[in-house]
Q: What sequence folds into this?
């Protein structure tokens, strides 16, 4: 998709996107009282992920009808594991912003991005988890934006997690199947930035 077409659609649908962002903030910040890095509202993280989806989404989106589902999934990617939402809850909520087919796309992305049950990062990021991501349209891209936003925040804060994310990045990209699902130029730009920072 052309970048201008993608950005114009976002601008035209700004009110819907703002409503999605508010619904996600309300869910995580008010209903769950969830924080990001102990002192920020959790919506801070959701906004970062959505920002990268909206910045780079034109590189992966082949259908204008998929833009809102991609953005919705960025805002709600943690809702099942962190906010105790169910698949059906996500489907019902997404239907308030989009049609049935779009809602299904959005809900499937959120579901695919939900971590497996596990005692540690390795168990939660199992091969099955990554296979589910690879099998779901746009899920690898949204996960890529999620990981990048976590890394970027860690660098900005001077957190030790920046180094953890840097070391994990090659394996993460392989598991994600980035060569098939995330544009090579974008991956190379991010890798160069991560290896510098």
A:
């Amino acid at each position: 998709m052309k970048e201008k077409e993608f950005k114009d659609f976002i601008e035209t649908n700004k009110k819907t996107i703002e409503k999605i962002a508010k619904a996600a903030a309300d869910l995580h910040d008010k209903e769950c009282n969830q924080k990001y890095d102990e002192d920020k509202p959790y919506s801070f993280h959701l906004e970062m992920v959505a920002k990268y989806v909206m910045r780079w989404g034109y590189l992966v989106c082949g259908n204008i009808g998929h833009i809102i589902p991609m953005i919705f999934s960025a805002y709600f990617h943690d809702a099942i594991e962190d906010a105790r939402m169910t698949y059906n809850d996500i489907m019902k909520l997404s239907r308030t912003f989009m049609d049935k087919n779009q809602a299904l796309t959005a809900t499937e992305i959120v579901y695919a991005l939900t971590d497996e049950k596990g005692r540690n990062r390795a168990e939660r990021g199992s091969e099955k988890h990554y296979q589910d991501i690879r099998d779901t349209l746009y899920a690898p891209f949204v996960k890529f934006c999620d990981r990048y936003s976590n890394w970027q925040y860690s660098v900005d804060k001077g957190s030790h997690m920046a180094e953890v994310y840097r070391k994990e990045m090659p394996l993460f990209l392989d598991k994600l199947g980035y060569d098939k699902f995330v544009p090579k130029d974008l991956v190379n730009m991010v890798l160069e930035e991560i290896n510098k920072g």
Summary: The two ends are 31 Å apart (CA to CA). The domain at 3-196 is CATH 1.10.3210.10 (Hypothetical protein af1432). The longest helix spans residues 139-157.
